[in-house]
Amino acid sequence: MTGRAGTIQHYVGYGAGERLVEEMRLLGCEAMQSWADERVVATEQKVRL
User: Does 39 fall in a domain?
Assistant: First the structure.
């Protein structure tokens, strides 16, 4: 039974790791989008001057 419990914990841990990686990827995408939005605003301001 211990082997089975260890296997279940492994898969649960693996799933948590995958979710963490996905969350980090999404945070990175949001950060890049925010940066790009700021650059667009800055460029538009320069063009208008």
Answer: yes
The pTM of the whole model exceeds 0.70? no
Q: Is there a domain that residue 9 lies in?
A: no
Q: Which domain holds residue 34?
A: 24-49
Residue 11 C-alpha from the chain's centroid: 21
Helix (H, G, I), strand (E, B) or coil at 37: helix
Which residue bears the tokens 């649960």?
12
2-49 confidence digits (pLDDT tens): 566 666 667 677 788 888 899 999 999 999 999 999 999 999 999 998
